[in-house]
């Protein structure tokens, strides 16, 4: 990644890179930010047993609202998710359908709900909220890939049970919104008002529609246990 960024910089493009392991690296300008998460789902990668993804986002400012390009490549499934702000999102080059609806069971539960940061202690604390929320839980162990499942309508909503860093989600959040879904980092004046940095700010939530996002937010904002 950095070899490519150095080449881009040598050809005259100026930007700042922010990468999980390297932190902030100056390439001349702070007006364009390249956000890199080299591996999302690192435990899956180490175990060679599940989704793990490279995420790259490009932003024209330092909040998640400023992201204009998102790229998530799942090295396990070899699925490539790409979003350009205002131009939609694709999976392996095919447009994602922005009209895919959330599925609710007759009981009012979401049908499939992605849960990240699935530490059993957090799961235990969220058990009551999850019982109200969903028929089935899925825990892939990779936040960006789980967000992309919402983008494709494979999952109806998702939540992380602990605070998520914007770097983990920056690219995938644009994939969700450009695919017609809704996202929110609670606690900021706007759903994507969180700063682009390496700090965990809030649980990340996403849904296919207002109603399924509301279910995810209810789990994110569950009473402390
Ligand atoms: Mg990472």
Q: What can you tell me about this protein's structure?
A:
The termini are far apart. The chain has two domains: 2-95, Fructose-1,6-Bisphosphatase, subunit A, domain 1 (Fructose-1,6-Bisphosphatase, Chain A, domain 1, 2-Layer Sandwich); 110-220, D-Maltodextrin-Binding Protein, domain 2 (3-Layer(aba) Sandwich). The strands form three sheets. Strands 2-3-4-5-6-7 form a six-stranded antiparallel β-sheet, with helices on both faces. Strands 9-8-10-14-12 form a five-stranded mixed β-sheet, sandwiched between helices. By secondary structure, the protein is α+β, with helices and mostly antiparallel strands. The mean pLDDT is 96. The protein contains six helices and 14 strands. The chain has helices at 2-10, 42-47, 120-133, 143-151, 166-178, 210-220, and strands at residues 15-19, 23-40, 53-59, 67-74, 79-84, 88-91, 94-95, 110-116, 134-138, 157-160, 164-165, 182-184, 200-202, 205-207. The structure holds magnesium ion.
Strand content: 25-35%
The total domain count is 2
**Spatial shape:** globular
Distance between the termini: 41 Å
Q: Total helix count? A: 6
Give the C-alpha Rg.
17 Å
Provide the CATH topology of the largest domain.
Answer: D-Maltodextrin-Binding Protein, domain 2
Question: Biggest β-sheet: count, sense, barrel?
Answer: 6 strands, antiparallel
CATH class of the largest domain: Alpha Beta
* Percentage of residues assigned to helices: 25-40%
Bound molecules: magnesium ion
Secondary-structure element string: HEEHEEEEEEHEHEEHEEEH
Indicate the low-confidence ranges by residue numbers: none
Q: Return the average pLDDT rounded to an integer.
A: 96
- Structural class, from secondary structure content? alpha+beta
Instruction: Describe the strand arrangement of the main beta sheet, using strand numbers.
Output: 2-3-4-5-6-7
In the CATH classification, which architecture of the largest domain applies?
3-Layer(aba) Sandwich
How many DSSP E strands? Answer: 14
